[in-house]
Fold this sequence. Notes:
Elements: H1 3-9, E1 28-32, H2 37-48, E2 52-57, H3 60-70, E3 75-78, H4 79-85, E4 88-91, H5 98-104, E5 113-116, E6 121-124, E7 127-130, H6 138-145, E8 150-153, H7 160-164, E9 173-179, H8 182-193, E10 198-202, H9 209-226
Helix pairs in contact: 5-6
Amino acid sequence: MTSTESAENTPKPAARDPWDLPDVSGLVVGVLGGTGDQGRGLAYRLARAGQKVIIGSRAAERARAAADELGLGIEGADNAACARRSDIVIVAVPWDGHAKTLEALREDLAGKLVVDCVNPLGFDKRGAYALKPEEGSAAEQAAALLPDSRVTAAFHHLSAVLLQDTSVEEIDTDVMVLGESRADTDLVQALAARIPGMRGVFAGRLRGAHQVESLVANLISVNRRYKAHAGLRVTDV
């Protein structure tokens, strides 16, 4: 038997189940911009699901005040301490402070799994519209500014109102997750799945982040027209 025939007869390993995700329950999650609506909502939902969460802010006292308000074992710290103490760091800062914040935290975020959920948007009389950063997207800007971090993109399409509503038991939505490493996107998908009703769905590499970020402008229009808090569901997956 030739080497070619031997290779052809060797059984191929079974395809990996895309829903076989890692256990992230023991990881510490930091939320930069955790005193804003989106960051605060994510911190609350993850802590409510049993995750250890640290809120980060430019002012440590502001972060601690927000953490005390939320309870659930959430801690508050300045952004640098939050980044250093966390295994996974969610970036939920306003777009206009995105680059400056990440530039200042480059060393603190080195080696960390960073999840960017920032949506570059503009607003005028006709409503919300997408902005396109020079790098292509907020997530790609983060990757350019944080060469020693593992950058992913996720949590863009979540309603801050629903996230913070303590009477809402489940958030009925899918979370689009983008990144360059399957190991990293699997971790983020697993983190999303910690929140009841939520599911993380792999949606491609970071070069596709602009489309995902931009869709938030359309959801804002949906919500305004229908007085809703719309999210997304991916069918047949």
